[in-house]
């Protein structure tokens, strides 16, 4: 029970921090669409899990619940421990116009490939059950 509650709280906190980062301004043109996005309406994100297990399924449920509360469309994908599938899901999310993608890396060594696949799209990495890539540790304050 504690594990599920903790996972739900983590997922909710991550969703809230992503939306705060995504909704900072309405853009340079100040259009109505930008104003809608600042309130959370119209955002779309994809959660990509390295391999669906009990913990990540709980995280997914918490994320979807938080997304629903905030009016965010959240899709989820299971990469089945396949880096190629993960990269394909990232590119699909980018091509679909998603605002952000959350990933649980299949292999920390491929983090740079995931960053490159995301391009300008916001990319957030969950490090549950995986080591943190060395170059991310060095970049942290």
Would you write up a description of this structure?
With 141 residues, the chain is of the alpha/beta class. It is 51% helix and 16% strand. It contains 6 helices and 4 strands. Strands 2-1-3-4 form a 4-stranded parallel beta sheet, with helices on both faces. Helix 3 (54-70) links the parallel strand 1 and strand 2 (73-78). Helix 1 (2-22) packs across helix 3 (54-70). The longest helix is centred in the first third of the chain and has 21 residues, at 2-22. The radius of gyration is 15 Å and the shape is globular.
Radius of gyration in whole Å, from Cα?
15 Å
Q: Which of globular, elongated, flat, extended, rod-shaped describes the shape?
A: globular
Average pLDDT taken over every residue: 75
Number of strands: 4
| Helicity range | 40-55%
Q: How many helices?
A: 6
Q: How are the strands of the largest sheet arranged?
A: 2-1-3-4
Strand % is 15-25%
Q: Characterize the main sheet.
A: 4 strands, parallel
Show unreliable segments.
Answer: 22-40
Tell me the structural class. alpha/beta
- First-last Cα distance: 34 Å
| Order of helix and strand elements from N to C terminus | HHEHEHEHEH
């Amino acid at each position: 029970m504690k594990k599920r509650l903790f996972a739900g709280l983590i997922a909710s906190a991550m969703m809230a921090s992503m939306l705060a980062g995504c909704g900072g301004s309405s853009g340079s043109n100040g259009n109505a669409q930008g104003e809608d996005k600042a309130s959370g309406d119209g955002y779309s994100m994809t959660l990509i899990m390295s391999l669906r297990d009990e913990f990540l399924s709980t995280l997914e449920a918490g994320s979807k619940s938080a997304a629903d509360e905030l009016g965010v469309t959240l899709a989820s994908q299971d990469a089945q421990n396949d880096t190629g599938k993960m990269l394909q899901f990232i590119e699909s999310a980018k091509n679909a116009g998603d605002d952000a993608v959350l990933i649980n890396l299949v292999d920390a060594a491929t983090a740079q490939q995931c960053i490159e696949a995301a391009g300008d799209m916001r990319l957030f990495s969950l490090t549950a059950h995986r080591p943190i890539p060395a170059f991310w540790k060095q970049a942290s304050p």
